[in-house]
Amino acid sequence: MTRRIHIASLCLLALIASLGTMAENGMNSPYTRFGFGQLATPELGIHKAMGGTGIGMRNYNQIDMLNPASYSTVDTLTFILDMGATLQNTNFAEGAVRRNARNATFDYLATQFRLRPGLGMTVAYLPYSNIGYSYTSSETVLTTDDGSITSTNTYEGEGGLHQVRGGLGWQPFPWLSIGANASYTYGYLQHRVSNQYSETSINSRTKIYSADVSAIGFDAGLQLIFGTDAERVVFGATYTPARSLSGQPYAVDYIVSGSVATVADTIHYTPLTLPEVFGAGLSWRHGDHLILAADAMLTRYGNTTFFDQQGTDRWRYSVGMQYTPTYDRHNIMRCILYRAGAYYSTTYYSVNGHPGPAEMGVSLGIGIPILNRWNQRSTVHISGQFVRMQPSVPGMMAENYLRLNLGVSFIENWFTKWRVN
């Protein structure tokens, strides 16, 4: 009797069930009040450990969502399923005040397989941005002999955008690979600003900004390959055109008297736009032992508005490396993949007329192969990240993130049969 047996597949189902209990939105940052919130890059487990580099990388046993041209590397008869989650501790610092928040998020789910020699396909679910915050500020607006009147502003927000991607990568020549993705981006953004007074006879006010949006988009990439597997240099480039999101943003202004809320005004804003993106990357590979990579990316948020607030162009630079001292699949300690990386990113929004905080991070990680009698190619990815949100002017809040990224790449010969007696 011939059957298909996939031990890793059973582990995958258990992992999906456990990760499904995690909150989808893992943010507690006041800076997500601006723009689309905190942006996510399409980094899977290996790339999170390498500073987010990958535009110029080609790995036959890893999915690289940073450049669709890389999809053509997948092995014949191989099916890859990659998924990951993040545990995060955030420290907020403003003057002498310190606060901590902990979150867990399910990050991504991606699959890759070969359609024919030189032609690979990838389908993935990825985050685009996250919004999550709740904070208040108070001030005394009037002092009399009978006491003082205090005004309190409450700011709350939630939501974010997500993407479903499907793409092809084709290698028509040994020195060239090209690829393209089609994507569906969807989600909602909501921000609430409430103003209340300690004197109950004064009416309070609440303004709710909302947008329920979606868009179909495309992106493309290429990779130029020089050398052989023993010594190889790859240059990569990507381009994503701008596209408008359906669904017009609006704000509803309420006047609240006692328990009665009356609509004072409804404002409609310019439709939101996902910006144009340019990316370039370079990697150098020395056999199975060493990979060095660097990326640069420009996202044209300067051509976009968020509830009529102008964005600014965002630059992101990253470097990363992967090192394997001695590659021997028969000894797990000799085939662990050691990774490190760093990145720097400018902001894409303004805060009270000043540039928002710059973002910088460093990461260290390992890839641990899953060695058993059925499968010696699947890998567990573990990495730690320290991320700093550095304010551009004194008095703004600083944020420090400590992240533990967990991922697993299941790699199996799903298109062959194993015979069991």
Query: In sequence order, what are the helices and strands, one letter per element?
Result: EHEHEEEEEEEEEEEEEEEEEEEEEEE
Based on Cα principal axes, name the global outline.
elongated
Q: What value does the average pLDDT take? A: 86
User: Which radius of gyration do the C-alpha atoms yield?
Assistant: 24 Å
Work out the helix count.
2
CATH architecture: Beta Barrel
- Sequence of strands across the biggest β-sheet: 3-4-5-6-7-8-9-14-15-18-19-22-23-24
N-to-C CA distance: 7 Å
The oligomeric status of these chains comes to single chain
At the fourth CATH level, what is the homologous superfamily? Answer: Outer membrane protein transport protein (OMPP1/FadL/TodX)
**Strand content of the residues, in percent?**
over 45%
In CATH, the topology is named: Porin
Instruction: Name the helicity range.
Output: under 10%
Largest sheet: 14 strands, antiparallel, barrel
Number of strands: 25
Describe the overall structure:
Strand 6 (147-173) and strand 7 (176-197) form a beta hairpin. The chain has one domain: Outer membrane protein transport protein (OMPP1/FadL/TodX) (Porin). It is elongated. The protein has helices at 7-19, 45-49, and strands at residues 2-3, 38-39, 79-94, 97-116, 119-144, 147-173, 176-197, 204-227, 231-240, 243-244, 250-257, 260-268, 273-274, 277-286, 290-299, 305-306, 309-310, 314-323, 337-345, 350-351, 354-355, 358-369, 379-390, 398-412, 418-419. The N and C termini lie close together (7 Å). It has 2 helices and 25 strands. The strands form 5 sheets. It has a 14-stranded antiparallel barrel with strand order 3-4-5-6-7-8-9-14-15-18-19-22-23-24. A two-stranded antiparallel sheet has the order 1-25. With 421 residues, it is mainly beta. The longest helix has 13 residues, at 7-19.
